[in-house]
Amino acid sequence: MKVSRETTSGGKVSMKVNEEATVPNVMDAIDESTPLAAELANENRRRERLQGRELPKPARTRILTVSNQKGGVGKTTTTVNLAAALASAGLNVMVIDIDPQGNASTALGVEHHADVESIYDVLINDLPLREVVAPCEDVPNLVCAPATIHLAGAEIELVSLVAREQRLRRAIDVYAREREKAGLPRLDYIFIDCPPSLGLLTVNAFVAAHEVLIPIQCEYYALEGLSQLLKNIDMIQKHLNADLVVSTILLTMYDGRTNLAAQVAAEVREHFPEQVLSAVVPRSVRISEAPSYQQTIITYDPNSSGALSYQEAATEIAERAR
Questions:
Q1: Which candidate in 183, 209, 218, 231 could, as Cys together with 254 as Cys, close a disulfide (CB 3.0–4.6 Å)?
Q2: Whole-number Cα distances in Å, 252 to 6, 53, 85
Q3: How far apart are CA 209 and CA 168, in angstroms?
Q4: Could you tell me the sign of the dihedral formed by the alpha carbons of 79, 80, 85, 89, in that order?
Q5: Are strands 93-97 and 142-145 parallel, antiparallel or unpaired?
């Protein structure tokens, strides 16, 4: 819109509004060299690389235990979002929640109140895994074996049971045979979400898995306690599961505005050059919000930077198939 002045024959001044004149677009005035513009351009390039990309099916079911004895590093968030990203790409995925808090079950929208049959009944009462598995309504191809508060006492109850370290692995093996017999497709991925401890529940997860995925927070003390986790994994390898390997490390809660995050990332990559994924998960409010709506970031805000990062991580994991 443009305003101009005109003088009439009587010497009066009138104002004329030109409706055809256009107002400059604010977005057009933004310099593409600004940090925000550069970030948006980078995200667009990353999305373009993922478009139309088909993820390969693994030769056998890949069972990954997501573990870190340090709390608050993003274990559950990583578990559910990687599972959702792989399932959204057409792969068959199951999440087994063995954390008594049941946060993975919440994020996937699966009931896990005290009256629900859960992974506790599988471990303690020998209930078949098929009896507790529930579908995730928001994501096709994704199912979940939920956790309930009863798991809080499972560590003590497991102590006196026969083959206490093998119970989850046996349940998964039986479930796989039952799926095959029923003509159901083979599971491509199983993610086991562990509590932040190294007790018998976590040991069961290590014995059942082929791989360990360790989320590491990009903050001070990121490597604190990791040596103890690696010692425990080494012990499992020697005595209970020789095939177990630490295959994947994912950097989470990365804040690119701080030098500390970059230093931590560099240090972790130096110690574990082959295991650390190129994808890095940023610190994001949207990722934190998603579980309150009983969703993963993949369904809650698929266009967010957090969803993009987990899709990149899932793609990288799939293309690293062992």
A1: 218
A2: 64, 24, 16
A3: 9
A4: positive
A5: parallel
Q: How far apart are the C-alpha atoms of 208 and 62, rounded to whole Å?
A: 11
What stretch of H or E contains 3? strand 2-7
Residue 23 burial (10 A CB sphere; 0-12, 13-18, 19+): exposed
Q: CA dist 120 to 51, 100, 147, 164, Å?
A: 40, 9, 7, 13
Do residues 66 and 75 make contact, with C-beta atoms less than 8 angstroms apart?
yes
For 136-254, where are the E strands, in sequence order?
Answer: 142-145, 189-193, 211-217, 245-254
Planar angle of CA 134, 91, 132, nearest 5 degrees: 15
Tens digit of each residue's pLDDT (9 = 90 or more) over 250-305: 999 998 888 888 998 999 999 999 999 999 999 999 999 999 999 999 999 999 99
Whether the CB-CB separation of 75 and 253 falls below 8 Å is answered with: no
CB-count burial class (<10 Å; 0-12, 13-18, 19+) for 262 = middle
What SS3 class is residue 290? Answer: helix
Q: How many CB atoms lie within 10 A of CB 218?
A: 25
Residue 35 confidence class, pLDDT cut points 50, 70, 90: low
Cα separation of 99 and 155, whole Å?
11
